[in-house]
Amino acid sequence: MQLLIIAFIEETIFRGILLRMLLTKGVATAVWVSSILFGVTHALQLLGGQSLEDTIIQIIYALLVGSCSIIAYLRWSIHYCNNSFPWV
Fold first, then answer.
1. Helix or strand or coil: residue 19?
2. Residue 15's closest CA among 76, 59, 81?
3. Which candidate, 24, 43, 45, 36, places its Cα nearest to that of 70?
4. How far apart are the C-alpha atoms of 63 and 40, rounded to whole Å?
5. Are 63 and 38 in contact (CB under 8 A)?
6. Spatial contact of 16 and 36, defined as CB atoms under 8 Å apart
7. Burial status of residue 52 (CB atoms within 10 A of its CB: 0-12, 13-18, 19 or more)
8. How far apart are alpha carbons 13 and 69 in whole angstroms?
9. pLDDT tens digits for 18-64?
10. What predicted TM-score, i.e. pTM, was given to this entire model?
């Protein structure tokens, strides 16, 4: 249950609210800033007693996965809109 709640919150914040706010600054900026913030939030694992090395690896992994997720989200949404609304 915790995994579902955390995933829902992350998607809502990082690929919902934050991404939409940052898209006004450009796609590249939105992808990088959102991904960096997503990665940095994983630094909270240090407070739970995780080692520094494991936390750094998790931050890098989250940054890369966050970037890929946002790019996939943007491409899918654009592709979907182009196919659904050809007059746009």
1. helix
2. 76
3. 36
4. 8
5. yes
6. no
7. exposed
8. 13
9. 888 998 998 889 888 988 888 888 888 888 899 999 999 989 988 88
10. 0.68
